[in-house]
Amino acid sequence: MNCPFRSKPRWERRKEARPQELLAAALDVFVERGFAATRLGDVAALAGVSKGTLYLYFENKEELFKAVVRENLLPVLDEAEDIIDGHNGHSADLFREIIFGWWERIGATKLAGITKLMMAESGNFPDLVTFTVRKSACAATP
After folding, report:
1. Please, what are the averages of pLDDT over each run of 10 residues along the chain (142 residues)?
2. Which of 44, 51, 79, 98 is the most buried (most CB within 10 A)?
């Protein structure tokens, strides 16, 4: 008999939150170790899941990194585009708003580590940087 007040088992309750938990753990490990040194087993352990569970959501480390960028950086770039599109004042005011907004949303957070990581490892992993630039350009195009 299904009781509407009975809570779901633990593994079902967390299922919806799991991708975000994995992305948060991945962000921490990528920022701490860089792309090359990050191991999916370490990301899974930090998220409190098995490595096999991680593979249910992400095909490989590159796809996980792309998802981290997609979920964390691209929304900030979209917001900046909206600010630029809607701005009617002086360009110096717009510049100030974009820079301070970037600092609040990225520069003063652990997300800054992702932008540093992309610059530092772009020579070794050019496809990841190309993906990010392409996604950013697509986000900026109406």
Report:
1. 46 68 95 93 94 94 92 88 92 92 90 85 77 56 48
2. 44
